[in-house]
Protein 1
Amino acid sequence: YQCDWSSDVCSSDLDLAEAIIYTAAASAMRRFSVDPDLNSLRDVLVFIAIAVAAPALMAIAYVATFRLGHLIAYRDVPPLVLEYWVGDMIGLTVIAPAFLIHRHHLFSAIRLRKLLSWEIAAQVGSVVLSIWLMFFWQDPIIGPLFYPLFIPLVWVAARHGLAGIVLILLLMQIGQMGTVEMLGITVLDRK
């Protein structure tokens, strides 16, 4: 199999693989009767198992397509599979719970008004400050500071439970990825 990258053949192959893999993941969630509100430990554990497996399959398909197209060397396959898998898995385990748990309230004016409080503003501000510390202030001995991110996590967990945690994790993910993009941080070349 050789990809013709001048056409959309490989791109559509990847699109099809992604559709099949993530549709199968959604079907598995239904088959195992996972409550979308993730109210039980069983629901959370099944969700996590699926959220680990589906991105792993997608990472293998994605990197295999590049390898079969002779665009990457054999030695680059394992680290690239790991990189794609971790990226997709983190994205899935952060984004999906936020939308699953809040799916009935996404466009509720009453729910949105509840988000307009000084406490919520302070919690969001603490996330912004934590991300700033992580990227722009380094301890001379230990390097980048990641632990300040736990302060808003604990605060939100104590005040808002799982419903708050999934939103604050989504905010942290968006903030971190946005900062990485703004700063132009890239993965170091492996050569």
Protein 2
Amino acid sequence: NPRNPNEPNEPGDLQAALGDLSLISLESLRSPNSMRSLSTSSYPREKDMHRFLMTTALALAGFTTSTAVADTITVCADGCDHTSINDAIDASSHGDVIQLSAETYSEGSEINLDGKAITLRGTTGESGAPTSILDGVGKHQLLICTTGETSGTVLRNLLITRGFGQGFGGGLYVENASPSLFNCHFVLNTA
């Protein structure tokens, strides 16, 4: 018995055929004999159905990824989401903005951006100069980008001062990474 390739006779073929009810119009369903009138050629072939489902799944995956909303995480001494920049980075996801206030931040340890595509954004005064200050108090490196940060990792409106590095990057240490910097001022850092 040769098998008709358009006729479902295996469980997978039947599932594929039943999965696409868009081939049946609503008008045809009103008739009591509607299902009998369907020809086997109206069933989709399993290969076509797999292609359709795969394309749909990939499209939906891309759609849901592209519609993700970035969070803004605030950091300040009192009344914000976090009081530590490192805690905010730990809580962040790709695309998030960590918003600093117009104050001085002395973390007590390096600020590691952990390879995340996030924005660490300070504030500016009327002149456009940064008013969010990262201060290493001469004891440690300030910012570290060593885990593959890309141009999606953004440092903006920061005054980076008094960072100390043992031979490398007192204010900002970058290795195997390429973060983006905008309106960042480096003052009194040593390495």
Protein 3
Amino acid sequence: IPFHDVNPGTADVEVRASDAPAEGDVLLDDVVLPMAAPALLARLPPLRTPADLRHAPLLRTPIEPWQPWFRAAGLDWAEPTAGPKLVDLGLTLEAAIGGQGVVLGRPSLARQALSDDRLRPLFGPFTRPQLLYQVAPHGGDPAAAEFCHWLTGCCARISIDAMALVQARLHPPPPPASPEEVSGRRRRAAR
């Protein structure tokens, strides 16, 4: 659970969730978008556009409110007041995996569930999350600065991999051509 405005005390490294730029580097270049479990999608009317979410249970969390995403999607909807409300992003993702509702999720945090097809991205727009995770070394220790640099690199790779999964699920490549189609193309090209 992100804590706000906590003094790092004597810690060598601080990881913070913040809605404002702070000292340090952004850990995850994240976006949020609706995701749902295949089992939930099988029980609902098709969810093809953002407006179709009116038929879906939405998982709520104060950490990732829906209203900014609704605005970006061109929907003049208020923040949902019905449905499960959780205060932890991990629990919200687990509830979505369990088919309890649609989550406004971060691909970086849902990477394994996206990879295993336990969650599916639904559609855009991709919007910035309310809070950004940031890391900062304290006290001038070179090892702390090196650790922050290493962690930032790891998180960048996670973000890139997760967005590649989302893009592949939203825009799958066409199926390979059958041998008959390939032969037909070669005959037409030879004419």
Protein 4
Amino acid sequence: IGCFQLGSSNIRKFCRQLGLENFDHLVAATALYRPGPLGAGFADSFIKRKNGEEPITYIHPVVEEVTKNTYGVIVYQEQVMSILHLLSGMDWATVDKIRKLMAKSKGRDSLKKYEEDFVEGCKEKRTLNEEQAFMLFEELMNFGLYGFNKCLTGDTILYKSSANRISGNEITIKQLFDSWNSKTSVGPKVS
């Protein structure tokens, strides 16, 4: 493939099980193929849902909107932030603080206050009842054990050539992926 995250035989096997159909699936695979999501069953759930072997359920239409591209599985930190903001009305600075605390093992203790704010915000906005809000917040905190941001986009440059060594400009992740899928070459030719 040409990307070190996808070089092992195990991740290639995982990608085959996933049945990569587009670039978003490739990005999700890099986020899901980590000890946390593998151990918690999130990666298996993603594959089963994508392949129609497990029903996709959503606690609220907002969660559906945020996670529909990942089959109802929370895969990225940005999804957690959007869910917190949209369901409870928390401001973006607060949800970013929560994102940072979730990633720290000691941060989970300091999240109790934010859990209460989330539940109260959901009740005020009438998006979730108290039980649903507590349950969703716990699911979001479990995500924090393995959270990964969606930092790779199709236009991320993998290679930029120096003019005197290689002719051509650059290769993006999307070009490499499309090339790999179509079995044609992409990017500059080495002279």
